[in-house]
Amino acid sequence: MSYQRLSLAPARKLKFSPAWPCSDARIVFDCLSGDYWVLTQLGAFVLGQVSTSPDFIVDQIRQQVPASLQDDTFAVTFEQTLQQLSDAGLVQGVAPLSG
Amino acid sequence: MDTVLSLPPFQIRVRSPLKSVAEHLEFFYPDSAKSHPSETFVDFDVQVLPGQGLRRWWHPQARFLLDGVESFFPLPLAQAAPMLEWGLNWCVASRPLGYLVMHAGMVSRGTGALMMPGVPGAGKSTLTAALCLLDGWHLLSDELAILNPATGLMQPHPRPISLKNASIDLVQDWPGAQMGRVYHDTRKGSLSHAAVPAVARAQQPASVQWVIFPRFEAGAAPQCEEISRVEAFTLISEQSFNRERMGETGFDALCTLLTGARCYQLVYGSTADALAQVRAITGA
After folding, report:
1. Architecture of the domain whose range is A5-94
2. Which residues of chain B have a pLDDT value below 50?
3. Does the distance separating the beta carbons of A17 and B248 come in below 8 Å?
4. pLDDT tens column, A66-81
């Protein structure tokens, strides 16, 4: 995903399941469609960040990811996560302003 | 016959000219407060009627109507009583009424409830009957787990337990089982209903403390594994009739339910094994 900024996809109103102990996943529920997705903790963190602002700078999100969610493959995993969130229709890239 | 059954949390008007339906209600719902339709608000207005047309002379049928609308194909007249039970299940499952309804057996002990969601054939009803008749649990429901989002509590809805095929012979030998007649050649094979004694029917709402996904496999050694609440959420969602329609309220209610419960998958090959596993999980 080559966008530098991300926003929540339109017509989504998301709600997260509690951070249940002994679970490495979260449920995110779309109150408007009734659909739900199972997210990794990294995916839930990214989506949680994106949900708090009209649009978000990808690098800012990357820097805010807790160390506990980063491992040796973090760079790749982060990009894959963004792609998966986009493919699921949960986030969308925001094209940079030109001119 | 034209009566209103009080089957909390619902009031159900039942009309039928069929003797088999009246006998079924007399046998299985003797304690359900009945009142005249003009005196009560009803949630569901159902009728079980004989078939129409020439067919009624050479292949008599029964029809189920909700609010005057026939939503199913007719069944043989001999299956009128099971059709009433299936129809009532459909009413409760298809009309939200502010409750989150899931396909699960439910029993309680005190204020704590055990929820057993599962696909048809998983053994829910037989295990539910065993827990109530052999291990002192109280029946909330054998088919429909009814969650009140406002309170987070499961509603008692203790109707007859629906048993199929080999389960019928098994349960009829258990103490206290009140068996109805056996219906052969239904869509689900042979079918019968079993009532538990009045003292084994839950009267009070209860909060879910344990969720067990049972799966009967003939001859299998018992296997029990605790699973995450996220996995339990996805499995229960598959067995929920109206979670999508309940929207945010249903999601919050299900999350609250799971937060207070521990969740397990149980494979078992005999009722004795299943009861032993449930005792170990619940500390009974």
Report:
1. Alpha-Beta Complex (3.90)
2. none
3. no
4. 888 888 888 889 999 9
Q: Give me the domains of chain B, ranges plus CATH numbers.
A: 2-94 (no CATH), 100-282 (3.40.50)
Report ipTM for this prediction: 0.87
Residue-range domain boundaries for chain A: 5-94
Condensed to tens digits (0 to 9), the pLDDT of residues B190-200 reads: 999 999 988 89
The distance of A73 to chain B (nearest Cα, Å) reads 25
pTM for the model: 0.91
Sequential DSSP letters for chain B: -EEEEEETTEEEEEE---HHHHHHHHHH-TTS-EE-GGGS--SEEEEEEE--STHHHHS-EEEEEETTEE-S--EEGGGHHHHHHHHHHHHHHH--TT-EEEEEEEEEETTEEEEEE--TTSSHHHHHHHHHHHS--EEEESSEEEEETTTTEEEP---PEEEETHHHHHHHTSTT-EE---EEEETTEEEEEEEPPGGGB--S-BEEEEEEEEEE-TTPPPEEEEE-HHHHHHHHHHTBSSHHHHHHHHHHHHHHHHHT-EEEEEEESSHHHHHHHHHHHHT-
Closest CA in chain B for residue A18: B255
Does the CB of A27 have a partner CB in chain B at under 8 Å? Answer: yes
Q: Is A26 on the interface with B (CB under 8 A)?
A: yes
